[in-house]
Amino acid sequence: MNILILVAHGSRREESNLEVDSLSKKMLKFNSNQFDKVIPAFLEFASPSIPEAIEMCSKIGAQRVTVLPYFLSAGVHINRDIPEEVNKASQNFPNLEIKVTSYFGSRDEIAELLMKTALEG
Amino acid sequence: MNILILVAHGSRREESNLEVDSLSKKMLKFNSNQFDKVIPAFLEFASPSIPEAIEMCSKIGAQRVTVLPYFLSAGVHINRDIPEEVNKASQNFPNLEIKVTSYFGSRDEIAELLMKTALEG
């Protein structure tokens, strides 16, 4: 079983966290059967945290976990916090193959999508 | 003259702010002549601020300014901070027509783009 964890920053505003939750559900539509499940996780202000999400994956029998950082820029969360949390969790679950993808903001499509947003107003 | 202001949160990490700067340049490629210029602005940690960017627009003779929030979720920055800063600035430049677009994270395309990132690894 291969589980995708969508990691967002997390907010004090519950609605923002629910947006991430609903986004993780929408993503399944575009899944080409590679992932059995998409679950959200948060760095701050909301749960599950990354270690909690990875523990959940292990408990439900995942062999592979893919961590996708939903962040716009390669700040300290991308360069330090997420790798650190993933490393800690992998020590607790040595049988789990855990991979971290590029962060969302690194996508080339963003410039075009931003201009589309501007043109639509 | 119509100027597009790409508003990002801003970071203590200069590289993150430079990413926004280079993104604002890339966006011009997808412009259908509606905007004469795309400039970045930041809520925190970097300049120009929104009021500074709007002042620049007025100084170089813009009649219209479009503010595009480069944020993933509709948190307090989208709901309070950006509208407040834009309102303050519009009082100082009553001849400028200023419009705020939807925030980037509201785009429907994001779920698909995230799944693409996950599948590419």
Structure described in brief:
Chain A has 121 residues and is an alpha/beta fold. Chain A has helices spanning 14-27, 50-59, 76-92, 109-120, and strands at residues 2-8, 37-42, 64-69, 97-100.
Provide the low-confidence segments of chain A as ranges: none
Number of domains of chain A: 1
Counting DSSP E segments of at least 2 residues, the number of strands of chain A comes to 4
Radius of gyration of chain A: 15 Å
Describe the structure.
The structure is a homodimer of 121-residue chains. The first copy, chain A, has helices spanning 14-27, 50-59, 76-92, 109-120; strands at 2-8, 37-42, 64-69, 97-100. Chain A is an alpha/beta fold. The first copy, chain A, has a single domain (2-120), classed as Rossmann fold (3-Layer(aba) Sandwich), CATH 3.40.50.1400. Chain A has a four-stranded parallel β-sheet, with helices on both faces. Chains A and B meet through strand 1, helix 1 and helix 4 of A and strand 1, helix 1 and helix 4 of B.
Short key terms for the protein model shown above:
globular, alpha/beta, 121 residues, four-stranded parallel β-sheet, Rossmann fold, homodimer
Topology:
Two copies of one chain form a homodimer.
Chain A lengths: L1 E7 L5 H14 L9 E6 L7 H10 L4 E6 L6 H17 L4 E4 L8 H12 L1
Parallel strand pairs in A: 1-2, 1-3, 3-4
